[in-house]
Amino acid sequence: xxxxxxxxxVIRKMSKYWNxxxxxxxxxxxxxxxxxxxxxxxxxxxxxxxxPSPMCKKALEEFDISLLRxxxxxxxxxxxxxxxxxxxxxxxxVFVGNGSDEVLALCWQxxxxxxxxxxxxxxxxxxxxxxxxxxxxxxxxxxxxVPLKDDFTIDPSDYCGKDNCGxxxxxxxxxxSIAMSLDDIxxxxxxxxxxxxxxxxxxAAFAEGYTSAATLINExxxxxxxxxxxxxxxxxxxxxxxxIGDKELIEGLKRARDSFNSYPADALAQxxxxxxxxxxxxxxxxxxxxxxxxxxxxxELRAMGFTLPDSSTNFVFAxxxxxxxxxxxYKNLKAKGxxxxxxxxxxxxxxxxxxxxxxxxxxxxxxxxxxxx
Length: 373
Ligand SMILES: *Cc1c(COP(=O)(O)O)cnc(C)c1O
Prior knowledge:
Blueprint: H1 20-24, E1 41-43, H2 54-62, H3 77-87, E2 94-97, H4 99-111, E3 122-125, H5 131-138, E4 143-146, E5 166-170, H6 182-191, E6 197-200, E7 223-228, E8 241-245, H7 247-257, H8 267-278, H9 280-303, E9 315-318, H10 326-335, E10 338-342, E11 352-355, H11 359-372
Parallel strand pairs: 1-10, 3-4, 3-5, 5-6, 6-7
Antiparallel strand pairs: 2-8, 7-8, 9-11, 10-11
Bound molecules: pyridoxal-5'-phosphate.
């Protein structure tokens, strides 16, 4: 039996009380959070600029506080039923967690083999959600980065005919903002019947004309689709995400959950999430507003000489015109109280990821950009 080789050499032991794994990993770095009271325009973590559904507020006001005496329903049954309505699946096909980051983490633990047991790797796009390599290291799963095409799109054939122990892709992808079609997802699923294909749809609500991969779960037993209320419902602070898949996959996730924390979603979160899911009108209105602001910002940035793909998300991935680097623009905007996300990483360090705020916020952003270029 081969011994695990740690992902990164432990160059410096950070603490003698931490085990070898914790000394060696490099945790995910979230976008910076402003200090309380600081007035800034926050376009760096893809939060929704609009308040959650008024039905959430009502549910909060009506919430029976004595319910907090009791442990919540372990499966978040109410939420599963509401999701089932929205995504046209059965509640048995739904697994709820404390934000989709937790659901993703449980997927990595449940479906992907540890490297001590296999030589195979999980295929992930070379540029994608930066949590995937973190999970790989943390759960001792080998990950293999598959390069994107030069235009940042994913070529499905790059995921076909490659030995693997799983596939994890964000669709639409982040930070590129580009969506792959359902046909392309089918190609990947058809070529990988023996491993689980994880499609992370955190931004799917903002992809015009996109059909969720969740519509394919009855056809493909190896498909798990992960979604969240954080971005599209304006509920990042509530921490509620879910997976949709065949019952066999859902059962696996429950085994992992019940070996870690049987009550990932608290009683209040379950109640508010259910209310939000049921308010289709509010969801649709905010979704349309955001899409139209995004499309306008895309046009205006292009008119200023920025290069950016058409976005299917609530952010744009934009390269400033020659004359200013992404890094200096990021710094100059920050000095003006406007936070966007800059990744100091090869291939993407010429781009900024700019979350879409309200029309007013984006006007201030565009004005500040005009002064800088
Ligand atoms: C934001 C994001 C998530 C995590 O969302 P939660 O707030 O944990 O539900 C997952 N995947 C991608 C690609 C994201 O951008």
